[in-house]
Design goal:
- It comes from Thermus thermamylovorans.
- This is Transposase.
- The structure is a single chain.
- With 112 residues, this protein is mainly alpha-helical.
- The chain is 52% helix and 0% strand.
- It is extended, with a radius of gyration of 22 Å.
Length: 112
């Protein structure tokens, strides 16, 4: 095999993949009540994401879901920021399923 001419070679130093930096954390709770409250909030947020995903499939708007007297605030007791984040996460999941050409109605929430 002959080497490619220098003009057509790609320079690997110019296109380096950026390294991923992640953070792992272990939450320590001074009392059992804090642990229960955090788990309850996580449960309600996850249920809110699932609910928002199903409502987005039905055609409801993001604004209708996150408003002050909207279903995420009333049914799940989430504040406006958490409700907006739940809708945003559901919208991202819906867009991702559509981009990959998968059936968005067959998304599994939770599980292992």
């Amino acid at each position: 095999m002959k080497a490619k001419p220098k003009a057509t070679r790609k320079r690997t130093s110019q296109k380096r993949a950026k390294a991923f930096t992640g953070v792992h954390a272990l939450l320590l709770f001074p009392s059992g009540e804090d642990h229960k409250a955090t788990l309850d909030l996580m449960r309600r947020f996850s249920a809110g994401v699932r609910y928002a995903y199903n409502r987005l499939l039905e055609g409801q708007t993001r604004e209708a879901l996150k408003r002050e007297n909207g279903p995420l605030r009333i049914f799940f007791g989430l504040n406006t920021r958490y409700a907006d984040d739940a809708v945003m996460k559901a919208q991202a999941l819906l867009d991702s399923a559509r981009e990959r050409g998968e059936d968005p109605r067959k998304v599994v929430f939770g599980g292992r």
